[in-house]
């Protein structure tokens, strides 16, 4: 275990911890103030969405880095692609299907109706071209990630097989080509959608696979350029962080100041808003990946980071919605709300810890033992 921890990148643990914290804090507002929508609450909930975008860029950065590492070591055959997929699937699928089953069991216990097309959750098709159903809502982002891991890596390795040279150039060119090709679906959405609210845009665009796979591929581009121009990025890391904060802050300030909504400025939200958020996330990476370890905080970030996947999967559908079903938290005193908040966070951490220790970590150990890196 010590050896495994020594190989971790401290800054990556920090990024993952920040991302899951933003998601959790956002969900806390839905628990405490489900019927309120003040500017402050809206901004905190926006940060929760940004936390997911940060996860997307991080996933692309890590997976793209693995693919580049395979290229550098000559692992460019289709058999190496199968190994890549096996390791990815053993990392992501067991937790996903475990929590999917737990959500089904919970609905049966509560005597609620199951989704009509529950089977779509197995091949991650429940939000491929349409809004995600109102069941196991966290799964929308998992669908995006799974198809991102499937589509571009397959195209890359087929190209490696066909051309057998210039592998790094193919990585860059195909990533850019995929992002450009996916842009066509956004254009189609823009001309055909009839959006009447932010929630409708979020469910019909932000959480749909075909419109959001490119978020992962932003991470592919990020790791390519950081590896190629590492000295430049490390020397300018504070400048890039300042630019990231300026872009993020000014974008949201303009949106709130001028009341720019999807129903009135759909083009902004389809073509500019999310790319600007992803760019802001990406520009922070040089600073964080070069971050020096803090002895006290290292263990905190390690704990949160390693449990982040389980935390993400269980906190909302399994815990928060169940609490809301039996208690109207919005109507109780502030002190009682604090107690419910502590209960929500405690249950989230406890259940995530159980999943990590007795399910996720043993599976990862088996993966590392039987599937070559």
Q: Could you walk me through the main structural features you see in this protein, from its secondary elements to its overall organization?
A:
The chain is mainly alpha-helical. The protein has one domain (2-370). The chain has helices at 2-6, 10-32, 39-72, 78-109, 139-163, 167-192, 198-206, 209-212, 214-228, 230-235, 237-257, 266-289, 295-326, 334-370. Helix 2 (10-32) packs antiparallel against helix 3 and helix 4 (78-109) runs antiparallel to helix 14. The longest helix is centred in the C-terminal third of the chain and has 37 residues, at 334-370. The chain is globular. The two termini are 17 Å apart. The mean pLDDT is 93. It holds the Pfam family Acyl_transf_3. One of its GO terms (molecular function) is acyltransferase activity. This is Acyltransferase. Residues 10-356 form the Acyltransferase domain. The chain crosses the membrane at residues 12-33, 39-68, 89-110, 147-163, 170-189, 209-227, 239-260, 266-289, 309-327, 339-359.
Low-confidence stretches: none
Q: How many helical stretches?
A: 14
End-to-end separation in angstroms reads 17 Å
Percent of residues in helices: over 70%
Radius of gyration of CA atoms, rounded to a whole number: 21 Å
The fraction of residues in strands falls at: under 5%
Mean pLDDT: 93
H/E element order: HHHHHHHHHHHHHH
In total, how many beta strands? 0
The main sheet comes to: none
Structurally, how many domains make up the residues? 1
Q: What is the 3D shape?
A: globular
- The structure class reads mainly alpha
Domain Acyltransferase: 10-356
Enzyme class: transferase
EC number: 2.3.-.-
Transmembrane segments: 12-33, 39-68, 89-110, 147-163, 170-189, 209-227, 239-260, 266-289, 309-327, 339-359
């Amino acid at each position: 275990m010590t050896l495994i921890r020594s190989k971790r990148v401290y800054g990556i643990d920090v990024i993952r911890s920040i991302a899951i914290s933003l998601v959790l804090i956002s969900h806390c507002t839905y628990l405490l103030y489900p019927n309120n929508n003040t500017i402050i609450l809206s901004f905190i909930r926006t940060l929760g969405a940004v936390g997911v975008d940060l996860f997307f860029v991080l996933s692309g950065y890590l997976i793209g880095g693995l693919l580049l590492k395979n290229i550098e070591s000559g692992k460019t055959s289709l058999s190496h692609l199968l190994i890549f997929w096996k390791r990815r699937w053993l990392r992501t699928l067991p937790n996903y299907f475990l929590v999917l089953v737990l959500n089904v069991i919970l609905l049966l216990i509560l005597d609620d109706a199951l989704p009509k097309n529950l089977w779509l959750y197995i091949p991650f098709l429940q939000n491929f071209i349409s809004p995600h159903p109102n069941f196991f809502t966290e799964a929308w982002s998992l669908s995006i990630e799974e198809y991102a891991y499937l589509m571009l890596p397959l195209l890359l390795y087929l190209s490696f097989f066909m051309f057998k040279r210039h592998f790094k150039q193919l990585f860059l060119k195909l990533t850019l080509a995929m992002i450009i090709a996916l842009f066509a679906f956004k254009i189609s959405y823009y001309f055909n959608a009839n959006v009447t609210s932010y929630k409708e845009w979020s469910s019909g665009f932000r959480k749909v696979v075909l419109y959001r796979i490119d978020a992962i591929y932003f991470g592919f581009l990020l790791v390519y350029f950081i590896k190629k121009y590492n000295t430049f990025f490390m020397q300018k890391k504070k400048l890039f962080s300042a630019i990231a904060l300026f872009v993020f802050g000014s974008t949201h300030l303009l949106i709130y100041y001028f009341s720019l909504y999807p129903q009135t400025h759909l083009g902004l939200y389809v073509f500019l808003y999310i790319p600007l958020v992803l760019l802001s996330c990406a520009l922070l990476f040089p600073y964080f990946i070069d971050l020096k370890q803090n002895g006290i905080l290292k263990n905190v970030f390690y704990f949160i980071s390693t449990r982040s996947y389980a935390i993400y999967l269980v906190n909302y559908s399994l815990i928060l919605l169940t609490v809301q079903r039996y208690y109207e938290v919005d109507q109780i005193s502030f002190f009682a709300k604090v107690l419910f908040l502590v209960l929500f966070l405690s249950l989230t951490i406890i259940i995530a810890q159980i999943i990590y220790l007795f399910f996720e970590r043993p599976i990862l150990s088996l993966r590392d033992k039987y599937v070559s890196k």
